[in-house]
Amino acid sequence: MDIFVKTDGTAHWGERRICCALGRSGIVCDKREGDGATPAGTHSLLRVMYRADRIVPPSTNLALSALLPDDGWCNAPQDSRYNQHVRLPYASSCEALWRDDHLYDLIVVTDFNTVPIAPYRGSAIFLHVARAGYELTEGCIAFALEDLRLVVKEWCPADRVRVATD
Fold first, then answer.
1. Residues near 145 by beta carbon (within 8 Å), at least 6 away in sequence
2. Does residue 151 contact residue 108 with C-beta atoms inside 8 Å?
3. pTM over cut 0.85
4. For residue 49, what are the domain limits?
C-alpha cells in the first residue's frame, strides 16, 4: 500500500494518518544537493539499516543490515561514489550514518537519484527517525520510531512513497 506524503507534514497510508517531518525548504520538483528540500515524486524503498546497539532488528521484507561505526553516505557531487554507501574515513565529503542523536537508529534508503545517479541532484534521501516535535529535516522524510517500524514491517516490494507538492 503506497504512502502519500503531503506538504502539511502528514503521511496517508491506507486508513492511517501519521505525522512526518519534511525538508526545511519544503517539497520541490527540482531537487538539488544541499537545498534542504524533500524531492517530489514517487520513490521506492530499497533497504533498511539500523543501529543494533540501540534497537532490535525490525521485521521487514526489505534488505536489512546493521549499521557500523564506519558507515557513511557520499554527498560530494563530483565523486564517483556520489549518493552511495561508503566506509569512513572517505576522501570526499560524506554524511556519517553512525550518529549520536538517534535520527539514524533506523534508516530506509530510497531510490531517489539512484538510476542513474546525477551529480548535484541530491543525495541521502532517507526515511528516518524524527526529532522531537517533528523538526524539519535536510530533505528526508522523518517519522516517529514506532511509525517507521510499522512502515518497514508492512512494506511490500510493489509499494511506493508518493511525495506531493500540494
1. 55, 105, 106, 129
2. yes
3. yes
4. 3-163
